[in-house]
Amino acid sequence: MTAASTPTFTTHLECSLTGEIYPADTIQGLSAAGKPLLVRYDLESLAQAVSQADLARRTEGLWRYREFLPVRRPENRISLGEVMTPLIDLPHVAGKSERLIVKDEGRLPTGSFKARGLALAVSMAKELGLDHLAMPTNGNAGAAMAAYARRAGLRCTVLCPDDTPEINVNEIQFHGGDVWRVNGLINDCGALVGAGKEQVGWFDCSTLKEPYRIEGKKTMGLELAEQMNWRLPDVIFYPTGGGTGLIGMWKAFAELRAIGWLPDDVKLPRMVAVQSTGCAPIVRAWEKGKEFAPLWEDAHTVAAGIRVPVAVGDFLIIRAINESGGFAIAVDDEAILAAGVEVAHTEGLMLCPEGAATYAAWKQALADRRIGADDTAVLFNCATGIKYPMPTATQSLDRHREIEWEKFR
Ligand SMILES: *Cc1c(COP(=O)(O)O)cnc(C)c1O
C-alpha cells in the first residue's frame, strides 16, 4: 500500500455461480464459467474502520461508502457530484396503504442511476490502467459511461440499438463518447462489443460483465438503509433489465447484516423484479420455477431501460427474489404510460417509464394481494422523466383575437 492509498477491504473476487476465487486488483471480466464476478471484502476489518456515526458526518453521495467499495486510491474516485437521492412520499396515490415512497434516482449526474454503476466501473478501470472502454446500451448506461470516462480521461465507445431515443444518443456524443447506432437489440450490440475486445483492445463494460458496476449499484441499498435509519421497507419494486441494482442491493443488505448494522430483528425487504409484458424473461423464468432465463424473442416496450431480452445475471436476480420472499411481475405498456401520467398529475412527480412501471406493478400487486396495505413500499425511479418522449402539448392562444375566457374556467 502506498502512502496515498486509504485502506479498502477488498480481499478477492468470486464467481457468483461456482465460488471460484480470482485475485483483486487485476483486470477481470466474466468468470471462467461465463458468470459475473462478485467483489468480496474483509467485513470484520471494514466494520472496525468505520461506524454509522462516521458516515453521518461525511458529505453526500456514494463515495461516503468508500470502505464498502473497491477503489483503493482516492485520486481514482471519479465524481461528478453524486447526491444522496431523495425519498419522496406519494401520499395521494398511496390511498389507505401504509407508505408508498419513491427513491428518485433521476437526480444523479446524467439523470439516471447508471451513474452509480459507471462511477465505480470507470474508477476501477482507471485504477487498473485501462484506457478504452466500450459497452452496449439502451441509452442511460452509455451516457453515464461517457461522462465518467471523459472525467477520468479515458476513451469510450458506445453501441446502441438504432431505435434508442435521439436524446440519449446525442447525450452520449455530447459527453465525448464515440457512439454508433446498430440495427439490432442490446444483446446484438453486446455481441459486437465482445468481438471488438480482440479487434480493438477495448474493455467490455457491459452490465455484469465486469465486477464493479454491481458495487456502484450496491450503494442504493446502503443509502436506502442509512436514509431509513438502518431499517428497511417491507418491499422494494425494482425495474429490472440486467438486474444490477436488484442484485447489488441484495448484496448490500447481506453485507450490512454481516457487520451488524442491520441487526437480526430488522427484516430484509421482499425484492420485486418489475418487467414489461413485452420483455419479461425474468418473470417467465421465475414463474416456471427456473433459475436461468432464456432469451425473450421480439422484445419491445416503451420502457427502454428494461428492454433486456437476456441477462447474464438471471440466476442472481431470481435468487435474490426467492431468498427475500419476493416475486417477479410484468405490466403492459398501457399501464406503464397511464401510471406515469397518474403520478405526475396527482403528486407532481415525473417518473421515467421504467419508474412508472414500478408504480403500475405496485398497484397490480396490491390488487392481487401479493402485498398488503400495511406494507411500506419503495419504488425505484431510475431516471429523470425529462429524458423521455412525452405526450405533445397542443394548446395555443392567438393574442390578436378575442380570448375565450370560458376555456380557463
Ligand atoms: C438500466 C436501467 C434500468 C435497469 O437497471 P438494471 O439494474 O440494469 O436492471 C431501469 N431503468 C432505467 C431508466 C435504466 O436506465
Can you characterise this structure?
The chain is α/β, with parallel strands linked by helices. Helix content is 35%, strand content 16%. Helix 5 links the parallel strand 6 (132-136) and strand 7 (155-161). Helix 4 runs parallel beside helix 5, helix 5 packs parallel to helix 6 (166-174) and helix 8 (213-227) crosses helix 9. The mean pLDDT is 95. Bound molecules: pyridoxal-5'-phosphate (PLP).
Quick synopsis:
The chain has 409 residues and is of the alpha/beta class. The protein contains 13 helices and 13 strands. The mean pLDDT is 95.
Descriptive labels:
single chain, 409 residues, alpha/beta, 6-stranded mixed sheet, 4-stranded parallel sheet, 13 helices, 13 strands, binds pyridoxal-5'-phosphate
Helix content: 25-40%
Order of helices and strands: EEEHHEHEHEHEHEHEHEHEHHEHHE
Main structural class: alpha/beta
Kindly state the mean pLDDT as a whole number? 95
Major sheet: size, sense and barrel closure? 6 strands, mixed
What's the Cα radius of gyration?
A: 21 Å
What is the overall shape?
Answer: globular
Can you tell me the residue ranges where pLDDT is under 50 for at least 5 consecutive residues?
none
